[in-house]
Each structure stands twice: as structure tokens, then as C-alpha cells.
Design brief:
Layout lengths: L6 E6 L3 H13 L2 E7 L12 E4 L5 H11 L3 E4 L6 H14 L3 E4 L12 E4 L2 H7 L6 E4 L15 E6 L11 E5 L6 H10 L4 E5 L8 H9 L3 E4 L9 E2 L2 H12 L1
Parallel strand pairs: 1-2, 1-4, 2-3, 4-5, 5-12, 6-11, 7-8, 7-10, 8-9, 10-11
Helix pairs in contact: 1-7, 2-3, 5-6
This protein binds NADP nicotinamide-adenine-dinucleotide phosphate.
Length: 250
């Protein structure tokens, strides 16, 4: 139980679902909601309720913090590619004896007319590109661009904040944050004469329009597979997370 006497729910955040969940729980009342963010983005969209920014220093420290906060439940609502914090949360929750739920949106599924090439890493994505085109729309975020740094291809790189070097030599940087519309994505890809799209299998609706646009334009898409998830209870929607909480903290 938290110092305030009400049940304390910790949400590991950094996603739209994490914000949605925090808003739902704060709106309902009766629980103390503490969201945590890595602190990567200078001006993050803040969730409702209390917010803690910055890493913990590993699972043992996270476990200590959970105990100190009197956490009654943890919901890991981080991004599907944030593998370190999810592994850390799984270990910390075990150490602290706090129930943990993973809220993970489903991955994207190719449909009729899609030309998707699955790869396991950004390096593999970079290797596959010269066979697919000259002008690349790279939407994998600002981390890991080193994999494309020695590539002679042209890149339209879209991310929330400017990446640190090394980055592709021939790069046009587009700083923006979704959600994106199909019309917008079609116009952008046409304007920059994009030949191929690279994306992580992030899932969800906020950034899905680029996949529909690629299908419409007949472009290949290189899709980076998700990292493995820890062996913990997992749900796909905010709704399911809310009902799990009902049983976890009463
Ligand atoms: P990561 O590699 O799994 O985490 C690196 C370290 O950052 C973790 O070990 C942890 O530090 C700290 N950290 C990460 N998420 C945290 C959180 N919610 N609260 C407190 N500390 C956190 O994660 P990442 O890929 O760098 O992503 C960072 C954040 O951005 C995540 O919260 C994620 O939800 C969000 N995000 C990531 C992506 C992506 O493509 N990776 C996309 C959109 C949003 P300590 O070990 O010191 O505790």
C-alpha cells in the first residue's frame, strides 16, 4: 500500500496506451497512479497522475523503488521494442513480490497487396535495402541509425527528436510525432519519391498509415521483428489491463 493509504499502481510508460491507462485509472479515482518515463524525449507527453522521469539503474534498484513506493501492482506498458526495461520489470517485480502485467499491443499483420520483408535487426534491414531501392523512408526511431551510416542510399528519416551521429550521410530529417493519416503519408512518400519503407513492427493505429500508403503505392516494406517478451502475464488492450487491475489490487 502506498504512503497515502490507497492502492498504488505503477505504469512503466512511454506509449499512447500507457497514457490512456493512466488517464482511465486517475479518472476512476481510488488508486494512486505513478507513471515512469525513461526521459529520452525533452518534452514528453505527460500522463495523468504522478510521473517519475529517468531510469532506475537496473532491476534491483527498480525493485527497491517499488518497495519504497508501496507499489501494489506494476503494468509494463512500454513500447514493444523497449526490451531492456521489460526484462528489468519482470525481474524487479519478482524481487519485490509485486504482481506484474505486460500491456503489449499486437504486431501488424500483412494483408493483400503488401510486400513485406521481415528482418531481425536494423543491420539486416540496412543490408537488404540496396536490392529494394535508392530512396528510403526510415521510421525506426532515432536510436540505431548507425546501422545505416555507411549506406550510400538516400534516407528520409522521421523521428520525434534529432538523432545523434553516426547517421546516414545522405539524410533528410523530419522531426514529427504521430498520429499520421493515410493522405499525409501518401503525399509525403510521393513528394520524396520514396522507393522503400523501413519500420519496426510497433503495431497500433497511430503510425499504421504508412503501411497502407506503401501498399497503395506498391512499395516494399522492410519490417523489423519484435524482440522476445519476458515470460509474464500479457494483455493486448487498456481495457484488459483495467480489468486485470481489478483482480490484482481489488
Ligand atoms: P530500453 O532500451 O528498454 O530501456 C533502456 C533503459 O531506459 C532501461 O534499462 C531503463 O533504465 C530506462 N527506461 C526505459 N523505459 C523506462 C520507463 N518507462 N521508465 C523508467 N525507465 C525506463 O528502452 P528504449 O527502447 O530506450 O525506450 C525508452 C522509452 O521510450 C521506453 O519507455 C519506451 O516505452 C519508449 N519508446 C521506445 C520506442 C522504441 O522504439 N524503442 C518507441 C517509442 C517509445 P534503467 O535500467 O536504468 O532502469
Amino acid at each position: 500500500m502506498s504512503p497515502t493509504g490507497s492502492a498504488c499502481v505503477v505504469i512503466l510508460g512511454g506509449t499512447g496506451e500507457a497514457r490512456e491507462l493512466a488517464a482511465r485509472l486517475v479518472g476512476r479515482g481510488g488508486v494512486r497512479v505513478v507513471s515512469t518515463l525513461a526521459g529520452r524525449v525533452r518534452e514528453p507527453r505527460l500522463p495523468a497522475g504522478e510521473v517519475r522521469v529517468g531510469g532506475f539503474g537496473g532491476p534491483e534498484r527498480l525493485a527497491e523503488w517499488l518497495r519504497a513506493e508501496g507499489a501494489d501492482a506494476v503494468i509494463d506498458a512500454t513500447h514493444p521494442f523497449a526490451a531492456r526495461i521489460s526484462a528489468s520489470a519482470a525481474r524487479a517485480a519478482r524481487l519485490a513480490g509485486v504482481p506484474l502485467l505486460l500491456l503489449r499491443r499486437p504486431g501488424w499483420v500483412a494483408g493483400d497487396g503488401d510486400d513485406w520483408r521481415w528482418v531481425s535487426t536494423l543491420e539486416e534491414a540496412a543490408e537488404s535495402l540496396p536490392r529494394l531501392g535508392e530512396r528510403v523512408f526510415l521510421t525506426t526511431g532515432r536510436q540505431g541509425l548507425a546501422a545505416f551510416a555507411s549506406s550510400p542510399l538516400w534516407y528520409l528519416v522521421r523521428c520525434v527528436e534529432a538523432p545523434d551521429p553516426p547517421v546516414p550521410e545522405r539524410m533528410r530529417l523530419l522531426l514529427s510525432r504521430g498520429p499520421y493519416s493515410l493522405d499525409g503519408e501518401l503525399a509525403l512518400m510521393r513528394e520524396h519519391r520514396v522507393d522503400v519503407l523501413v519500420t519496426k513492427d510497433s503495431g497500433g493505429g497511430r503510425t499504421e498509415a504508412k503501411l497502407s500508403a506503401a501498399r497503395r503505392l506498391g512499395l516494399p516494406v522492410v519490417v523489423v521483428r519484435r524482440p522476445a517478451v519476458p515470460d509474464v502475464r500479457c494483455v493486448a488492450t487498456v481495457e484488459e489491463a483495467v480489468s486485470w487491475l481489478g483482480s490484482a489490487v481489488g
